[in-house]
From TrEMBL:
One of its GO terms (cellular component) is cytoplasm. Belongs to the 'phage' integrase family. XerC subfamily. Forms a cyclic heterotetrameric complex composed of two molecules of XerC and two molecules of XerD. This is Tyrosine recombinase XerC. It comes from Puniceispirillum marinum (strain IMCC1322).
Amino acid sequence: MITPAHRAAWLAWLAEEKRYGRNTIDAYETDLDDYTSYLATQPDKLTSSPNRTVFRGWIASMSGRDLARTTIARRVSALRSFLRFASRQNLLDVPDLSWLRAPRPPRTVPKSLSVDDAQALLAAIFARRGDDWIKARDFAVLMLLYGAGLRISEALSLRRQDAPLGDWLSIMGKGNKMRDVPVLRAAAQAVDEYIDLCPLALDSDKPLFVSSRGGALGARAVQRLVESLRVELDLPAHVTPHALRHAFATHLLGNGGDLRAIQQLLGHVSLATTQLYTHVDEAHLVKVHQETHPRAKLR
């Protein structure tokens, strides 16, 4: 039986050992809650331990609610993570889980934004009303997403002691993996200007980016910022903070960047994941092909 103590221990492990971001942990918590809610509707004899009958019924119940395959896949991944943790910690008697597999989600191409739209989004920050230090903070955060390819959670995890930024920045990414990313001079200058203008005390071991009340700046605040800028500029609905990370990769590739180098910059384990992020329009591909293929120069 899954108890609140088991659940709390697993969530703490995700945060402290796996170093997952708050949004990921919240999603995994919701995923496990969905599974336990389903268990509560089943006869006790079926739910004494994880088994294929219950698992298949749970999958069917999610499909019946028209949940996306990506959501179902994530929920199965969360359940697998919890059960493996519970087994290692001797919290539950967990059988072999090799059969616990999610339906394969479709591989969709993340939507990016054009160079002009990315530049317009950044420039629009300074045309808004409000305190100069808030504008400088918002610009610095978005510059780290677009200029260094950071995830929101990675940018907001920076501490005051990490600045001033040098030529390289060491980032703890997903799965507790470290990577080094180069820092554009413009991004480093944006962070410096924010620090100079910020009227609040920034302790060295505390978050670099803070709210107007002095607490850590949250991911939702950055999402709301981009949402409002998107509406002001009449940009497509897919323009989100994460789209700036997509744009970082896509624009690098479009200007001749190496795919494997971009993979390292993004912190992707699989090159296939990077390929999804780095879509380039067909016209550009044709242009590169015609200009670089050795046979293209022959008449």
